[in-house]
Write a structure and sequence with these properties.
The complex is a heterodimer. By secondary structure, chain A is mainly α. In chain A, about 80% of the residues lie in helices and about 0% in strands. Chain A has a single domain, classed as Arp2/3 complex 21 kDa subunit ARPC3 (Orthogonal Bundle). Chain A contains 6 helices and no strands. Chain B has a domain at about 180-260: Thrombin, subunit H (Beta Barrel). Helix content of chain B is about 30%, strand content about 30%. Chain B contains 3 helices and 12 strands. At the A-B interface, helix 1, helix 3, helix 4, helix 5 and helix 6 of A face helix 1, helix 2, strand 1 and strand 2 of B.
Chain lengths: ~170, ~290
């Protein structure tokens, strides 16, 4: 039973993003801003930090592929970026201490890297023609703020969960 | 840091970049349908989403109802005033319909570009990444949905069907930036002006109709509808209103900015439009490529 808990949690985060975009009307945050929820990726980054690089990269690849197929229909963007950034974050965490404030800040850096990476890729294949300056003001900062709020709320429960997951692995 | 990129890691990175480019190239090319693993995954995800979206719809609906209750009085007043106008309009429409039918009978022409059959569908998911504006609906091939069909709400056109799976399909919204997403449109006026809706201005929240000859006069507030000449959409679906006109780069053409009538957010129930009139065979138009099952 416990084995399915972790995939289920990420599946819920995966669906939560879609529900968030569908039901939170844009008027709440002002019409001119684009807020992209990155709850799933925030969870993957926290998993990388607390449960280890292996899990982060595996979950990143699986859910990146799922994200690409279900939402984007261009396979490769998230399939590549999720594991790559998870790997980079695990490298950064080698240097830093693992406490919750550092984890929060590093996850936010990871989400920022993801946003930039996705923007560059989409710009390259002409999905968007948004200029970099407008991208930063219209999308980058609001998205970071939204995800910072999410990490503040969900960071501690997720940390507890991942730590107990690691404990249960050790017991086996 | 010499050990940061050990040889093995460098090779893994390079190989994965090659795989990435290959995968993106594979999925970017013109695909008439998705491969079966993708379809299977999307249908499975669609099933889970429709399970989740039902309670979510209920909760969201409850809050919306509360909001509606607040301004019921104002709305009621306005609607009553509109109702009076509606009665006379209805009589007029009846008469025109009858006229139209009689004239058509005389001509012996049964079908027009305007005829269509509506198909109700519910939105079960929306792309959270917000670059590719797409929604997922709960009807698929088994319900008779085909690629490129028009999708509307009560207020106007919102997009077209991008891919079809067995039990769900993906709709690309007009607000998506896709150079392939072109819709033949008419700007209604004393003389109708034809143009192509190409692209979306994210900052102004307006659709762009490009390549209108610069001699043609277009005013603010003119209605824009689909022309039905694109081959897939029926004629007369409302798109929006002109809010601005500006000359293009070289001054030979002008671009009209059109405010879409439909709201691209807060979508719940939508209608997929099936055109009754047969679609022209693409092979006849000198463009004979592979599109067999449109």
């Amino acid at each position: 039973m416990k084995k399915f808990l972790l995939p289920l949690l990420f599946l819920i985060l995966f669906l939560l993003e879609s529900i968030f975009v569908q039901y939170i009307p844009p008027e709440v945050f002002g019409q001119n801003y684009i807020l992209a929820p990155r709850f799933l990726f925030g969870g993957i980054l926290l998993l990388t930090i607390y449960a280890g690089r292996k899990y982060g990269i595996i979950y990143g690849a699986i859910f990146g592929l799922l994200f690409d197929i279900v939402w984007i229909e261009i396979i490769g963007i998230y399939f590549f970026l999720f594991p790559l950034i998870a790997y980079l974050i695990s490298k950064i965490m080698h240097v830093l201490q693992t406490n919750i404030i550092v984890a929060f800040l590093v996850s936010l850096v990871g989400i920022a890297l993801l946003e930039l990476g996705v923007y560059e890729m989409d710009f390259l294949i002409h999905i968007t023609t948004l200029e970099f300056k407008s991208f930063i003001t219209m999308r980058f900062y609001p998205t970071l703020i939204l995800n910072a709020v999410f990490l503040l709320i969900a960071g501690y429960p997720l940390k507890r969960h991942f730590e107990s997951f690691v404990e249960s692995l050790r017991d086996e | 840091m010499p050990q940061f990129f050990l040889n093995k890691r460098l090779i893994v990175l390079l190989v994965s970049i090659i795989v990435l480019v290959a995968l993106i190239g594979f999925s970017l090319r013109e695909r008439s349908k998705l491969s079966w693993p993708e379809q299977f995954l999307k249908d499975t995800a669609g099933l889970v989403q429709s399970l989740v979206s039902k309670p979510a719809h209920l909760v969201a609906g409850f809050f919306e109802n509360l909001q509606d209750l607040q301004n019921t009085y104002e709305e009621n007043k306005e609607l009553k005033s509109r109702l009076e106008k509606l009665v006379s309009l209805e009589a007029q429409v009846q008469e025109l319909k009858k006229d139209n039918k009689e004239l058509r009978d005389i001509l012996g022409e049964e079908e027009t570009l305007r005829d269509f059959e509506p198909l109700q569908a519910t939105v079960i998911g929306r792309n959270p990444d917000r670059w590719h504006e797409m929604i997922i609906i709960n009807k698929g091939k088994t319900n008779g949905i085909k690629k490129n069909m028009a999708v509307v709400t009560a207020h106007g056109l919102i997009g077209k069907v991008k891919t079809v799976n067995q039990f769900s399909s993906t709709v690309q919204l007009l607000s998506a930036m896709d150079p392939k997403n072109r819709i033949s449109a008419i700007v209604q006026g004393e003389t109708n002006v034809f143009g192509l809706v190409e692209g979306y201005d994210k900052e102004k929240k307006a659709l762009l109709i490009k390549a209108i000859p610069s001699g043609v006069e277009i005013k603010k507030g003119q209605n824009v509808i689909t022309s039905g000449l694109g081959g897939v959409f029926p004629q007369g679906l409302p798109i929006g209103k002109v809010i601005d006109v500006k000359p293009d780069q070289y001054g030979l053409n002008q671009t009209a900015l059109v405010e879409p009538g439909a709201n691209f957010y807060d979508l719940e129930n939508i209608i997929v439009i099936t055109r009754s009139m047969a679609q022209p065979n693409l092979g006849d138009m000198g463009e004979g490529k592979e599109e067999e099952d449109l």
